[in-house]
Design goal:
Blueprint lengths: L7 E11 L3 H12 L4 E4 L13 E2 L1 H9 L3 H4 L5 E3 L1 E6 L2 E7 L10 E3 L2 H12 L5 E4 L3 E8 L2 E9 L2 E12 L6 H6 L3 E3 L4 E9 L10 E4 L2 E7 L3 E9 L3 H7 L1 H11 L17 E3 L4 E3 L3 E2 L2 E3 L5 E2 L7 H21 L5 H28 L14 H8 L5 H8 L20 H5 L2
Parallel strand pairs: 1-2, 1-11, 2-8, 5-14, 11-20
Antiparallel strand pairs: 3-7, 4-7, 5-6, 9-10, 10-11, 12-18, 13-16, 13-17, 14-15, 15-16, 18-21, 19-20
Helix pairs in contact: 1-4, 1-8, 6-7, 8-9
Length: 424
């Protein structure tokens, strides 16, 4: 008996967003809220992925406040970080004081990214214009006379073609859409990678210091409630050499860096417990083609320094919705409109990437050699002059150009027939 021929499903929408991460989901919510028909393609079956960016910064919390969702959002389990410190050569040094920020939440919220994405998805599903397609992996672009006209995707049921007025690539630092569009990437080079792992948390542990630096080595520790999420900075490409030294040597290196973890490093039972993050700092020369825009990591990959990548991706989404919501409802987005978004978001991106590159060239390459007794001058200044801590607080907490939601909510909650009102 012959098997049936595979079928191709066809959809038509105003905006097709590829990637269900922070940028894609936030943009999908904002566009649907503004009455734009939007399809989000996510290649996985759910949002559950470990060791992803879990920091929701004050700038992003302020956006959730502007959406009227903050109280509901903060009912989700999370931890707060109001003061950022670092333990440098055994001395705990204050780095940033978020209490002076002009935001409703003067802290960083640590929350698993899957909880954040599920929350945004549930809010977006309230709008009939929003369509989330899980297990839909983008494979190619649909082009028409040099204009990007849609996306092809592989699904469990066969091929899917989504024809759209605008395609937005929000599919991360290894963006398939960016590759298909042949948009050149400028790589700035980073001398580090990061190894992520979990270690249990005990009640006797000292208060969280976001970074531990000693003798040229660095480990970031994020309080996840019941455990520490740890990021160990290593030299670029150095993971193989570390593995060759053996798991016991790796455990000992952690104990030397963070002595109170001595009784817990045995929880690292094998190298399978350690995940490698290949750190990149890059950005596109041009973020767009006719009918296509790249945002978030697809446009500019950040390093983990400061945990700002998720929040810059969300800021990109807000700027995109502010600029394009009305134009998408009218069915026309020009190249000039897309150029405007890159112009607005490229400057803050360049600033934060330059700062990250500066930090990586001078701090924590994962190689021994930093004098044990000396604190770097910037650290000494932050220790001795409390007012200076407002500078890193603003850079980390808000970025260089924080966005605010200007796209409308066209859903009249008092109307029973709101689908007709939205025109979806």
């Amino acid at each position: 008996m012959n098997s049936p021929e595979p079928t191709t499903e066809h959809l038509r929408t105003s905006c097709c967003i590829v990637g269900g991460g922070p940028a894609g989901m936030m943009l999908g919510l904002l566009l649907a809220r503004a009455g734009v028909e939007v399809v989000v393609l996510e290649k996985h079956a759910d949002f559950f992925r470990d060791f992803r960016g879990d920091t929701i910064h004050p700038s992003s919390l302020e956006l959730i406040y502007e959406l009227g969702l903050l109280d509901e959002f903060l009912r989700l389990p999370h931890q707060k970080l109001e003061h950022i410190s670092a333990c440098v050569n055994g001395e705990t040094v204050p780095v940033a004081d978020l209490s002076s920020l002009p935001t409703h939440c003067k802290y960083i919220a640590f929350m698993p990214q899957w909880d954040f994405l599920n929350f945004i998805a549930e809010q977006a599903k309230r709008y009939p214009c929003f369509h989330l397609r899980l297990q839909s992996e983008a494979t190619a672009l649909i082009e028409n006379a040099g204009h990007i006209a849609g996306v092809k995707a592989a699904t469990p049921g066969g091929e899917l073609e989504v024809h759209a007025d605008l395609v937005v690539a929000a599919d991360g630092r290894f963006s398939v859409i960016r590759e298909c569009a042949k948009l050149p990437v400028v790589d700035h080079g980073v001398p580090i990678d990061v190894l992520w792992l979990r270690l249990s948390k005990q009640g006797s542990d000292p208060s969280a210091s976001l970074g531990h630096l000693r003798a040229g080595r660095m480990m970031v520790m994020i309080d996840r409630g019941e455990y520490w999420q740890c990021g160990i900075v290593i030299a670029k490409g150095g993971f193989t050499a570390i593995q060759q030294q053996g798991i016991d040597a790796f455990r000992n290196a952690i104990t030397e860096l963070v002595p109170f973890m001595a009784g817990r490093v045995g929880e690292i039972s094998a190298w399978d417990d350690v995940k490698l993050l290949t750190v990149q700092i890059n950005r596109l020369k041009r973020w767009y083609r006719p009918g296509l825009l790249c945002i978030g990591d697809a446009a500019h990959a950040m390093s983990p320094a400061g945990g700002v990548g998720v929040n810059f991706a969300i800021q990109d989404a807000v700027a995109t919705a502010n600029s394009l919501a009305a134009k998408l409802r009218n069915g026309h987005v020009s190249v000039g409109d897309l150029r405007h978004i890159q112009h607005r978001r490229e400057w803050p991106t360049r600033m934060i990437q330059g700062l990250q590159a500066f930090i990586h060239q001078r701090v924590g390459r994962g190689e021994p050699g930093m004098p044990v007794t000396d604190l770097p001058l910037p650290i000494r200044l932050l220790r001795d002059r409390p007012l200076l801590r407002r500078i890193p607080a603003r850079i980390i907490g808000l970025g260089f150009r924080p966005e605010h939601i200007r796209s409308p909510d066209v859903w009249d909650k008092s109307s029973r027939d709101y689908q007709d009102q939205l025109g979806c």
